[in-house]
Write a structure and sequence with these properties.
Elements lengths: L7 H10 L2 H30 L7 H45 L3 H4 L4 H9 L2 H31 L1 H48 L1 H6 L1 H50 L1 H5 L3 H47 L25 E12 L5 E13 L3 E6 L5 H8 L7 E6 L2 E2 L5 H5 L2 E4 L16 H10 L21 H15 L3 E5 L7 H17 L3 E5 L11 E6 L2 E4 L9
Parallel strand pairs: 3-8, 3-9, 6-7, 7-8
Antiparallel strand pairs: 1-2, 1-4, 4-5, 9-10
Helix pairs in contact: 1-3, 2-3, 2-6, 3-6, 3-11, 5-11, 6-7, 6-11, 7-9, 7-11, 9-11
Length: 561
């Protein structure tokens, strides 16, 4: 059974409801009481039918009044509880999304993205439906209690008998449901493994279509086995749910039979008492079943919210220190002032990657480096030499684990990190194109002007709603659009990681020999990772990186190291 004091679901509803929570609780009580009084009116009408005076109009009127009041109160609690639940779950997810922005890049790369996505996107409708079921079950519980109070006025022994029977049935049902909870966790994890296989299917469709053995292995060794495990776990869970619910439904009918066939003889009930108990029980059993059937739903919702809370705790644990303050509303705050830039220097900077056992896997060790305003610097090196890692450390995305960094001869630790990062615009190899030029207050004409310099003005435009007309572009065109957004940011320092790799030969030459020098002329500074040795001569300096360290060499074709 759910521990109510620790229930995240109840906490979510109560905190989100605020002052309205008391109104919903009062409406639940009123709804249950009106439902019970409507049943009493029916019971009184049955008694009047057997009397000489017959059915009285005031009894019928009382029934209509109770029914009308029940309708409006019940509509209020189910509607408003659903709204409260929807607001609560959406605000919780929005809070987690805002916190995700504050996670350090290094720790973010280690997070299980699929788990985070599932926690943020799944289960919203289930939470809303569970809120409706909860308030309905609460109102029904009040109605059942009112009915028991009425039973006590008819026959105390009969009421105690019904209470004992229902209590026994409810206890057995809870034992069955507790066995369900033990299977829900494994079932959820099995579903996550199956979904991971499906993500591999659509993410790697190109490779799968080119190589059938990969498809056979993916389905035979991953998707189908995971589906089988997930299906078996779900089947076991649902069978136990069905067992518990069907048992209680059968048990309720059994109670009616015991009241009719056994209690009159065992407890000496009169015919009128037996009839009243039967009527009250018949009206109470349906609400009881709805109450019982809500228990599995509440358990599923509780587990879903526990997963959401676990994801939030995981994100909180890896947030950057300066991001923790007002992290939820931080994105709404104005940007800090961008500092002046004349130079950035590194002295004995070290950054290492470690495996799960804490052993060093790879890292960079930079004895000395300096980037001065107005420079065009190229970095070359083999795969895994540390070029991209160095760029992330330089940009403040990875924090050095040793050594010192300086901005304009001041220690970087004395500079606001958010301000420092605003010096840079970066176009990495895995650049993500958003549907609109985010953070840029520009007109369609301004975008077109920049796209014209990139020979893209006929491919993309800015629509009236602020979105790009299309993102259905070739790899090279997408990288040019990313480059256009970077240029529009007009930052002090441009970091390019193999930006020209997807460009055609003609535009590649234009990029190196015209565009980059023009950025420098306009006051920019460029650090670019490149393997295009044909164009190294345009650089002021050429640096070579090997095994995480710099080896300064004479630049090819005239560039100086």
């Amino acid at each position: 059974m759910l521990q109510l004091k620790k229930s995240l679901f109840l906490k979510l509803l109560w905190e989100q409801a605020g002052d309205e929570g008391n109104k919903i609780v009062a409406a639940c009580l009123g709804s249950g009481i009106m439902q019970g009084l409507a049943v009493f009116s029916v019971l009184q009408g049955l008694e009047q039918l057997s009397s000489d005076d017959g059915l009285q109009f005031h009894t019928f009127l009382a029934f209509l009044v109770c029914l009308t009041a029940f309708y409006f109160l019940f509509r209020y609690i189910t509607g408003h509880s659903a709204q409260v639940a929807l607001r609560g779950i959406m605000e919780w997810r929005m809070r987690i999304a805002a916190k995700l922005r504050g996670v350090s890049l290094l720790e973010y790369e280690k997070l299980d993205k699929n788990r985070i996505q599932s926690a943020l996107l799944d289960g919203r409708e289930m939470v809303v439906e569970a809120a409706r079921m909860l308030v309905a079950a609460s109102a029904n519980t009040v109605m059942v209690l009112v009915s028991f109070a009425k039973m006590a006025t008819v026959s105390i022994p009969g009421t105690l008998g019904v209470f004992v029977l229902l209590g026994a049935g409810f206890w057995i049902f809870l034992q069955l449901i507790n066995s369900v909870h033990a299977h829900m966790g494994p079932a959820m994890r099995a579903d996550q493994r199956f979904c991971a296989g499906l993500r591999d299917l659509y993410a790697g469709l190109l490779q799968l279509k080119m190589h059938k053995p990969k498809t056979r292995a993916l389905f035979g060794e991953q998707i189908i086995p995971d589906l089988s495990v997930a299906s078996e776990a779900r089947d076991a869970t649902e069978r136990r749910h069905a067992l518990g619910i069907s048992f209680f439904a059968m048990f309720n009918l059994l109670i009616l039979g015991l009241i009719l066939f056994i209690m009159p003889k065992v407890l000496g009930l009169e015919t009128s008492e037996t009839s009243s108990l039967l009527v009250l029980c018949m009206f109470s059993l349906s609400p009881l079943i709805s109450l019982i059937t809500s228990v599995p739903m509440m358990a599923k919702v509780e587990m879903s919210l526990q997963e959401l809370a676990s994801v939030e705790a995981q994100i909180d644990a890896v947030s950057e220190p300066f991001e923790k303050s007002d992290v939820v509303s931080r994105w709404q705050q104005p940007d800090p002032a961008i500092p002046d830039f004349s130079s950035i220097a590194m002295r004995n900077v070290r950054f290492d990657y470690h495996d799960r056992a804490g052993l060093r896997v790879f890292g960079i060790d930079v004895e000395r480096f300096e980037l001065r305003k107005g420079e065009l610097v190229f970095i070359r090196g083999g795969n895994g030499s540390g070029k991209s890692t160095f760029m992330k450390v330089l940009a403040g995305l990875y924090m050095p684990q040793a050594g010192e960094m300086f901005l304009n001869d001041s220690l970087l630790c004395d500079v606001n990190m958010e301000s420092y990062r605003n010096l840079f615009t970066i176009v990495p190899t895995d650049y993500h194109l958003f549907s609109r030029p985010l953070g840029l207050n520009i007109t369609a004409e301004q975008l077109t002007d920049v796209l014209r310099t990139l020979h893209m003005e006929t491919k993309v435009t800015l629509l009236e709603d602020g979105t790009f007309s299309t993102l259905d572009l070739s790899a090279g065109q997408r990288k040019r659009l990313a480059l256009a957004c970077a240029l529009l940011e007009k930052r002090h320092i441009y970091l390019f990681d193999e930006v020209a790799a997807d460009f055609d030969p003609i535009f590649r030459r234009y990029f190196y020999e015209e565009l980059l020098p023009d950025i420098i002329k306009q006051g920019g500074t460029i650090l670019a990772i490149s393997h295009d040795d044909r164009y190294f001569h345009v650089a002021d300096r050429l640096l070579t990186m090997r095994e995480g360290g710099f080896v300064e060499e004479p630049a090819d074709n005239g560039a100086t190291a």
